Amino acid sequence: MNNKILVVAEVRDGALKGISKEAMVFAAAASNSLSAEVVSVALGADLSQVAPALAACGGRRSLQVEDPGLDPYTPEAYVEALSQVISKEDPAMVVIGHSYQAMDFFPRLAAAHGGALVPDVTAMDADGAFTRKVINGKLDARTVPAEGVRIFVSLQQGAFPVTEFSGEAQVESCSVDLSGVTPRKVIEIAPAEVGEVDLAAAEKIVSGGRGVGDKDKFQIVFDLAEAMGAAVGASRPPCDAEWVEHQRQIGSSGQVVAPKLYVALGISGAIQHLVGMRGSQCIVAINKDPNAAIFQEATYGIVGDLHEVVPELIAALNEAKE
Ligand SMILES: Cc1cc2nc3c(=O)[nH]c(=O)nc-3n(C[C@H](O)[C@H](O)[C@H](O)COP(=O)(O)OP(=O)(O)OC[C@H]3O[C@@H](n4cnc5c(N)ncnc54)[C@H](O)[C@@H]3O)c2cc1C
Question: Is residue 194 predicted with pLDDT exceeding 50?
Answer without folding.
Answer: no
